[in-house]
Amino acid sequence: MNDLKQMIIGVGACCFLLFLMGCGGMRKPAKQSQALPGIFPDYTDVTIPSNIAPLNFMIEGAEHIQARFLVAEKELLAVYGDEVIDIPEDDWQHLLQQTVEKKMQVEVAVWDEKHPDGIGYRPFNISVAKDSIDPWIAYRLIEPGYEAWQFMGIYQRELGSFCEREIVSNKTTTSACINCHHFDRRSAKRMMFHARGENGGTIILDHGQLKKVDPKKMGPQKGAVYPAWHPEGRYIAFSSNTTNQTFFGQGRQPLEVYDRASDLILYDTKENQVTADNRFLNEERMETFPAWSPDGKWLYFCSAPAKKLPDERKEMHYSILRVAFDSQTGLLGEQVDTLYNARMEGGSASFPRISPDGRYLLFTLADYGTFPIWHNEADLKMIDLTTGKPVDVDAWNAKDQTDSYHAWSANGRWAMIASRRLDGRYTRVYFGYLDANGKAHKPFLLPQKDPRSNTLRLKSYNIPDFVDGRVEMPQEVVELFRCPDKLIQ
């Protein structure tokens, strides 16, 4: 009798489970549409690496949403939810392994107030490239305003998961302004950042050891701002900028940031000294945004004739130059080349970045000025250094919205792009694929566990960079700011 009772209970439980699955599981929509689904983020027809976190997405207002992932008409994964497609990480990684160098087809169906019986949309493709992406990225999180700040920090995110960790923040540095982080050859073991304010300085992490230096007290006694670590690890090139801003009461551009002076300096981490070349210390020209060629033989930078600012700000047009460098002597050579001539080609260039194979020069181009993040017209441009000809990367740009800071992955197949294309105010991270033929593919937004966090997180991702592993910042970093002379070299 007890066995029969337990059997009845078991059958009832199974029937109830089947009922629930019928109500909330995979369903068949009553209608079909030839339109693409209005998913957020827009992951339709993007190319992704084989080691990226799940591309979770949503359709606002959906009461039930489901997605089927197929390859060659064979279903490999099916996921459903109330409003969000939340893909299990293990299932997603297994799916990626089966679709490398293939296109997965995604079929999305939605049940909502307008379509109570469901509507299926035209399938879209996601291409999975064989080229992987670096395991981590690092960025500063800050409110999108230049005039004030309160809480900020440098954070790291694992790209194969949704893990985000703090590297350092001003919660532990007496509210210092933390900025301009940079890594030695993308190494998590060796990085630097600036901390402005009381007891601040340039902080260098070197394989678990910390030190604080003050470039203003060395050599030409100029402050260090935008950094570029030499590929051999000994030198760091800096621009020394005297930065100001002008605020506007009307128009789409709320402010203009500009330099009243900017020069180039070189910090020797081995000898702990700062040197400079007099050619790049004069008041007639402004030099900024240094970057190295992968072989370390050339120092790239932006340069423009000095103007009367802010009155002549719209006449500030920066070109991209490079000067030879000898890492044995630490000296800049005589030869100076112009790679992008703003006077002849128009606009104003910033953030020169050379691909790891040395072939491509990627940079931001705005109408004028040196702070493109506040310019809606700013776009990415690229030059093939082997031919001197431009390369079409329009696929990476958003119309009438800022596409600004960028970084290359270690294999040179992925460009990380800081863009304000979602709302015109907050800078978020996108990844664009560059295939072996030099073709740029549609970029995709940094995946989040909950897609809504892309818009609910009221912070800008600032200066995103690739990192080869997880940064372990020693707890002693707090002492660098509490004690004026602590670890000053």
CATH architecture level-2 label of the largest domain: 6 Propeller
By CATH, the topology of the largest domain is Neuraminidase
What is the mean predicted local confidence, pLDDT?
Answer: 90
Report Rg: 26 Å
- How far apart are the termini? 84 Å
Q: Which secondary-structure class do the elements indicate?
A: mainly beta
Q: How many domains, in number, for the residues?
A: 2
Proportion in β-strands: 35-45%
Helical coverage, percent range? under 10%
Q: Could you list the spans in which at least 5 consecutive residues all have pLDDT below 50?
A: 1-23
Number of strands: 33
Number of helices: 5
What is the CATH level 1 assignment of the largest domain? Answer: Mainly Beta
Major beta-sheet overview: 7 strands, mixed
The CATH superfamily name of the largest domain is TolB, C-terminal domain
* Overall geometric form: globular
Pfam family, one: PD40
Family: Belongs to the TolB family.
Protein name: PD40 domain-containing protein
Structure description:
It contains five helices and 33 strands. It has two domains: 26-128, Immunoglobulin-like (Sandwich); 136-482, 6 Propeller (Neuraminidase). The strands form eight sheets. Strands 1, 2, 4, 5, 7, 8 and 9 form a seven-stranded mixed beta sheet that branches. Strands 12-11-10-33 form a four-stranded antiparallel beta sheet, with no helix packed on it. Strands 13-14-15-16 form a four-stranded antiparallel beta sheet, with no helix packed on it. With 489 residues, it is mostly beta strands. Helix content is 9%, strand content 42%. Mean pLDDT is 90; it is low at 1-23. It starts with a helix and ends in a 7-residue tail after the last helix. It comes from Xylanibacter brevis. InterPro entries: 6-blade_b-propeller_TolB-like, WD40. This is PD40 domain-containing protein.
